[in-house]
Amino acid sequence: MTADAPITNVGADDRLDGPFEPNVFARDCGSRAAFEAITGRWTSLVLIALVEGPHRFGELRRRVDGVSEKMLSQSLHALEREGLLTRTDHGTLPPRVDYALTPLGVEVAGRLRALADVLQDTVPLFEAARAEYDGQ
Amino acid sequence: MTADAPITNVGADDRLDGPFEPNVFARDCGSRAAFEAITGRWTSLVLIALVEGPHRFGELRRRVDGVSEKMLSQSLHALEREGLLTRTDHGTLPPRVDYALTPLGVEVAGRLRALADVLQDTVPLFEAARAEYDGQ
DNA sequence: CAGGATCCGGAGCGATACTG
DNA sequence: CAGTATCGCTCCGGATCCTG
């Protein structure tokens, strides 16, 4: 991205009715930041896992196959920052911390869950597509 | 991930009715691969852009604010490989190549678009959540 | 059990230059 | 216009150790 290139995709792009129409395509839009947080490699899976209800740290680590403690912790912080989940420290010993979706988190995670369901139901199509593409 | 840790999250996890129930949480599941391809930083935005109809390379580059040519090209190949979009080279001069969603791509992209709409409509909530989190 | 701190290799990614 | 090739750097992310 050269500095002299005029960027006109920041504010109102396709619909210029409002003064500042939020636009995921725009780099500086708040929705884009939220979108990138949600579509993170691990964050999305964490959100989906929480659709079934609150989870503890260890539960999530076991549920999301392959995630390291570091990345799980990092993902949870990111999602908490975006207001998609809440962290509840019971302050007991041994420690117990629960992660649960906020109302907005429920809305978002539900859609991710639905998306994942579509993918799970069409696994054969993906296998075929990959084989086709790799074959030639 | 230690090697001796028994991983039992590969196949049937929460529902063990079928022989091999696809599971996004499982590392080796085809749906997980598709999910990671879809939720890539740029791939998701490309898919959303294509909901409005076929686009040329340059159009996409201008539409998806901040993407480099390299990453756009790479993202398009990945999505084509997953069978979510088709590439049509008209073979003319100057060259013209169109990218369009497959039926499966329409299904997936539509859901991403809906998700993005939610985020765009709740931008203020994210701003507030971030301010709250950063403040303390 | 919940996670912070640190090290470090490799993947991700942008910038630039070049081709048909 | 539609890409590919190459360089170089950032930072993702896993492994490991440590604490309350």
Automatic annotation (TrEMBL), chains A, B:
| MF term (GO), any | DNA binding
Ranges of residues in domain HTH hxlR-type:
29-127
Question: Keyword set for this entry?
Answer: DNA-binding, Transcription, Transcription regulation
Which InterPro entries does the protein's record reference? HTH_HxlR, WH-like_DNA-bd_sf, WH_DNA-bd_sf
Q: Which domain of life is it from?
A: Bacteria
**Looking at the keywords, is Transport present?**
no
Q: Which Pfam families match?
A: HxlR
- What protein name does the entry list? Helix-turn-helix domain-containing protein
Which PROSITE patterns does this chain map to? Answer: HTH_HXLR (PS51118)
